[in-house]
Amino acid sequence: MIATAASNRRRQRIFLIAGAILAAYALLAPLTSLDAAQSANVPLLADKFWFQIATNIAMFIVMATAWNIIGGITGYAAFGNVAFFGIGAYTTGMLIAKAKWPFLLALPLAPVVAAAFAALVGLPLLRLRGHYFAVASLGVGVAVGELVQNIDYAGQPVFGGASGLFLPIFRIDNRGLFFFYLMSAAAALSIAVTWWMLRSRLGYGLIAIRENEEAASVLGVNTTAYKVAAFALAAALTGLAGGIFSQWNVFVNQDNVFPITYNIQMILMALLGGTGTVFGPATGAVLLYLLIQFLGGTLPISFDLPFVSSDARPIVAQVILGLLLVVVVIFVPRGVIDFFGGRTRLSVAYLRRSLRETSL
Amino acid sequence: MSAVAATPQLELRGVTKRFGGVAAVDGVNFEVAKGDIVGIIGPNGAGKTTLLNCISGIHHLDSGDIRWEGASIAGMAPHRIANLGIGRTFQIVKPFGSMTARENVAIGALFGSAHMRRGMKQAFALADEVLELVGLKAKADQPVSALTIPDRKRLEVARAVATRPQLLLLDEVMAGLNNVEIDEALEMVRSVHATGVTVLLIEHVMRVIVGVCRRAIVLDSGRVLAEGEPEVVLRDERVIEAYLGERYAKRLKSS
């Protein structure tokens, strides 16, 4: 029935240790691909394909964790955060491709430009509440991508137009490893920022806004400034991921840095893992990314879905994903991280309680 | 503390707020002296809560002016008014549901007047102090959902008190409480007032107005109908007609 406090603590410790071991393995396994490790006959634990997946996971950890700052902690359902990813990617991309800046100098400007843009659109947008904000932010997310692709000056596309931007390859040994660690550092930074926030004046102010904006304002919270700060902070982190992506991918266009699907995916990752928490969105990012790739058949571990032809597979994968997410939202409203905190366990009683909570 | 000061702490001049064609508050004038404790009464729809919303910056005035220690605060954002030292509660309590009682009160301490001088530790220390003052110390670490209705009302007051206000606006903190709970709440209001806070309270419970207020202001249809000592005001013919009804008038005369 009710687990005792001691056994809860033990369970929480077990989950923490398991998480730490997984993270340590993910971060250390790639080192076995180094020449030095190979000549010392260390078994290869991670190859190039693995970097690709792991770097993508880290990228989504940044996006989901950053979305959590505005969507989870502040409670403003932003549907257009991919704009910040794209702006970050194009900022770094333009500086490298057109202005010939070195990557490491161009990267810091990605979060700066993305945050400045967020502050600018945030001031009018964050006056809207509920669905209105969600729809308006979605509009911004779509519009920015279209604008970037279609702005011309003197008959020439300013940002590379429909053919996109090609960046020179960043010359460094073990490039795959470099970008994996860089993206992982961005993921760690976004988690650290969230951890710090939830213990700071800023975080308390944002949660107060989420819980009751009017009460927050009469208690002295400068709601406009706090909401814009949260939006800009989310944009900065998302923009940083975009900046890293542009040099990693060496090609940037509307399709790969402004995909609408990212908007949905980062929100679903945060929901699946647990909004408003430090590690929830990251947990959700790992689980959902792997699931999407597994269903799509792009992971080395895969099997044929019964009764499904390989042509129909992507569609069936979407359907399965959709169903799963409906189930998660209804039955696990606080995200799977709820089970790792040590307080609750997955049980029929838990699912029934959740259903009562989420239904009218 | 002196009941009358040279410049009034709060001064309302011709305060008017319209919703569509209806003037919910219509040319209201009054003053509140520092350290005073004033009650606002009036029938439902008289404009009491609208008036509080005007003072705390939630509503913008259509005309008139509100002065705080001589300077106009009309048109200021709610958080700036809170930072000046005007705290308030809501009639329908608005707790931060995901937080504990202590965290709720700490929000007031973190963001209220002179908050920048308070770090996280000091803010939580102040929250504990205020929780003790309102009698919620034992429930500090409970989530809001575990609190009873009277406790939620206390929490609402505690949060406002933690902003360290010089003026506290209370919107029907006694509504829905039984007699014993009202006595406890009265004690709470008295002890807050005793710390030097000016109190302006809206109340339907006449016992509260007579019990703690030095002055009462009667609102009717958005206008000030009468103003003065509670006992005198409650005997005023117009007030009895507009609000209290004859039965109460008879009871009052026989007592």
Give a quick precis of the structure.
The complex is a heterodimer of chains A (360) and B (255). Chain A has 360 residues and is mainly alpha-helical. Chain A is 69% helix and 2% strand.
Structural class call of chain B reads alpha/beta
Q: Specify which chain pair forms the largest interface.
A: A-B, 22 and 31 residues
Oligomer: heterodimer
Q: List unreliable stretches of 5+ residues of chain A.
A: none
What is the helix fraction of residues of chain A, given as a range? 55-70%
Determine the strand fraction of chain B and express it as a percent band.
Answer: 15-25%
Shape field of chain A: globular
H-E order of chain B = EEEHEEHEHHHEHEHEEHH
Largest sheet: spatial strand order of chain A:
1-2
Q: What is the architecture of the largest domain in chain B at the second tier of CATH? A: 3-Layer(aba) Sandwich
* Low-pLDDT segments, ≥5 res of chain B: 1-5
Compute the number of strand runs of chain B: 10
CATH level 3 topology of the largest domain in chain B: Rossmann fold
Biggest sheet statistics of chain B: 6 strands, mixed
What's the overall average pLDDT of chain A, rounded?
A: 89
Overall SS class of chain A: mainly alpha
**Spatial extent as radius of gyration of chain B:** 18 Å
Give the secondary structure arrangement, pairings included.
The complex is a heterodimer of chains A (360) and B (255).
Chain A: H1 5-28, H2 35-39, H3 48-73, H4 82-97, H5 103-106, H6 109-125, H7 130-150, E1 152-153, E2 156-157, E3 165-166, H8 175-197, H9 201-211, H10 213-218, H11 223-249, E4 251-252, H12 254-257, H13 260-273, H14 280-296, H15 313-331, H16 337-340, H17 348-358
Helix pairs in contact in A: 3-8, 3-11, 3-13, 3-14, 4-6, 4-7, 4-11, 6-11, 8-11, 9-11, 13-14, 14-15
Chain B: E1 10-19, E2 22-32, E3 37-41, H1 48-55, E4 63-68, E5 71-72, H2 78-84, E6 86-88, H3 101-111, H4 120-133, H5 149-161, E7 167-171, H6 179-194, E8 198-202, H7 206-212, E9 215-220, E10 223-228, H8 230-235, H9 237-254
Parallel strand pairs in B: 3-8, 3-9, 6-7, 7-8
Antiparallel strand pairs in B: 1-2, 1-4, 4-5, 9-10
